[in-house]
Amino acid sequence: MRNITVAVDDDTYKRARIAAAERDTSISALVKAYLEQLASHETETERLKRQEREIRSRIAAFTASQRLSREDLHSRSQ
Q: Is residue 63 included in any domain, yes or no?
């Protein structure tokens, strides 16, 4: 487990102490819970990789017979 040091202004520290006391916990516990929640979310890279896998799985089911004919592709609505 790692320890970290965070510098905040006096007003922020006082308000954080009050918020922690109201929740019957410590500032450290509040910060730890926040960081754990932040780290548990999917990163942008992970999200994009997941989306790519999902799209590739749908593309894999694609066959050439599902394509539009040249005439259908270039037809105009009348």
A: yes
Whether 41 has a pLDDT exceeding 80, the answer reads: yes
Q: How far apart are CA 52 and CA 73, in angstroms?
A: 27
Q: Find tokens 């942008």 and name the residue.
A: 44
> Is the whole model's pTM more than 0.70, yes or no?
no
Residue showing tokens 């910060």: 31
Distance CA 16, CA 3 (A): 19
Number of domains in the chain: 1
Cα separation, 24 vs 1, whole angstroms: 23
With CA atoms as reference, report the closest residue to 7 among 33, 34, 37, 27.
27
